[in-house]
Amino acid sequence: MSISRRGFVRVVGLAGVASVWGAEVLARGREGATAERWAFSGGLAPFPALAEAAGGREIRLSSNENPVGPPKVALEALLAAVGDAPRYPSASVQRLIERIAAHHGVSVESIVPGSGSGEILRMAVYACTSPTRPLVTGAPSFEDPARYAEVAGAQVIAVPLTKDLHLDLAGMAQRATGAGLVFLCNPNNPTGTVHGSAAVADFVERVQRVSPDTTVLIDEAYHHYVEDPAYATAVPLALQRRNVVVTRTFSKLYGMAGLRLGYAIGRQETIAALRRHRLANSVNALVAPAAVAALGDERLLPVERARNHEAREFTREALARIGYPSIGSEANFIMVDIRRDVREFHKACAGRGVLIGRPFPPLMTHARISIGTMQEMGAAVEVFKTILASS
Among 259, 269, 146, which Cα is nearest to 215's? Predict the structure, then answer.
């Protein structure tokens, strides 16, 4: 039986989206699947068994998602676009590119979209690295660029974090000579630490002084959550200087991790080099109009920032009260030194229905905890307290 777009909306309705596709389809992404299926040494079961053990009521604090999901206007736009599903998405994606370009006040040639940040990072690694041009990154930082570099046969130079868990910008700049790509995740995942705009501009200048042909990619996946007054987006820097790229995603603030959309912004010639590695039709016909609508939702940013701040600081304070303080976070997750093997802590939490982030070597006593709703964090904190008090 066929069903028209109007008929689909009438039958399903906005409130029925989650029941048709499931919340995971709209709000969850590849990192969620990776985190929950991660099999640690010591016999931890993969995610399906964990879900069964938790009675299907697990609290997912494992992959830095927005627990609220997409804003209402995005869901409405997505439903309205269902009738376009049989068609290739070229027209809707072009409208999306134009909307993103207008949002930043740049030309469309300065924007390239992709299937989440993952595809954008892959484009950059494939365009810039090679067996003779390494990738420079932090350790730990978001792992995807290093994985893509390994596939491309490029050396990965991983510079350890500083003692206060910030990216070592001086150390990374020193290793940048001859590199194809330097990856700067700001705020950094998994630590939540951030560098101010002056430090980032100085870093880019230092890298390009010693290695003019090296591209610096600044990943701003968590840009919207930053409260540090010293911070500012590096988009103006990317538009001023060649070989600088800023990436953004709709997976965090906009709650669309499962719908997969990210983009890069920079000078036209820099973006053109990335665009050659883009997969055709990688942005689907449903997420494009949803993202266009979300960009126009002026209420979303202050509401979501406030919600995340409240739940994040509640969690930090609760853990500090029982002797486990954490460094300040400028993202939608925290990194806590639990002073024990994080794999065992992960396993114990999962056994009680709370899923936290995977290990991030070499920080093997640190747990990355994503921020859910206040209700989820209240329940999760009680689990943390029980486990941390048991040994």
Answer: 269
User: With 0-12 CB in 10 A as exposed, 13-18 as middle and 19+ as buried, what is 349?
Assistant: buried
The string of DSSP codes covering 19-78 is HHH-HHHHH--HHHHHHHT---TTTPPPHHHHHHHTTT--EEESS---TT-S-HHHHHHH
Amino acid at 183: F
Structural domains in the chain? 5-72+299-388 (3.90.1150.10), 74-295 (3.40.640.10)
Residue 168, H or E segment: none
Q: Which residue has the tokens 């070499």?
A: 362
Helix (H, G, I), strand (E, B) or coil at 259: coil
Contact 129, 146 (CB under 8 A): no
Mind listing the pLDDT tens digit for each residue in 299-354? 999 999 999 999 999 999 999 999 999 999 999 999 999 999 999 999 999 999 99
Q: What stretches in the chain show pLDDT beneath 70? A: 1-56, 391
pLDDT of residue 190: 97
Other beta carbons within 10 Å of 327: 16
